Amino acid sequence: MDLTQGTIIEKNRRAKKMMLWFAIISLIMSFAAWTSAFIVSSSRPDWLKDFQLPNSFILSTVFIMFSSVSFILAKRALKRENNKAITIWLLVTLVLGVAFIYNQFVGFQQIINQGYNFTGPTSNVTMSYIYLIAMVHIVHVVVGLICLLVVIYNHFKQKYNVANMLGFELAATFWHFIDILWIYLFLFLYFVR
């Protein structure tokens, strides 16, 4: 396919999708670097080998997985032009995204209650990595929530339909990416010592 061909609208769609994929690839590279540093640092003598992630991280993982499912259901409803179902599934996605972040902070509080802080005399390198990786991911979930709020706003303004789904699709792609990214990070932090 010749990327220089097509109408201005088609070129614009391709450019926006390509920009999103460049952003996703750069995020993958960043998180790959942090998880690689985690592995390299795990040979340090002060590394915690027996630390278990708090259960609220498991619960947050469930919330973000279901949020991806609800976004898929919202997109299916859009293709069927079922506005009521779109609204319901978008709002469910929003609530699940907020629940994810809430449970992440509950998990951080549980880590603090165990005596580990991000920095300072009660911190250590293992916990600092866990805080860093999870907090940077939370920032991206917040960006995803902002995108979702824009989608909800545009949905109420009736800007989406079967022929015009670009913003919806871009937000959904990013949301699914941060979902898959967290599943990888959770499994990594849960199993890699």
Strands, helices and their partners?
Elements: H1 8-41, H2 55-79, H3 83-113, H4 125-156, H5 166-191
- Indicate the mean pLDDT: 93
N/C terminus separation: 46 Å
Q: How many E-type strands?
A: 0
Radius of gyration: 19 Å
**Which geometry do the CA atoms define?**
elongated
What is the CATH superfamily? Cytochrome c oxidase, subunit III, four-helix bundle
- In the CATH scheme, what's the topology name? Four Helix Bundle (Hemerythrin (Met), subunit A)
Which second-level CATH architecture applies? Up-down Bundle
Helix share bin: over 70%
- Low-confidence stretches are none
What structural class do the secondary elements suggest?
Answer: mainly alpha
**Biggest pleated sheet:** none
What is the level 1 CATH name? Mainly Alpha
- What letter string, H or E per element, gives the SSE order? HHHHH
Number of domains: 1
Beta-strand share of residues: under 5%
- The count of helical stretches stands at 5
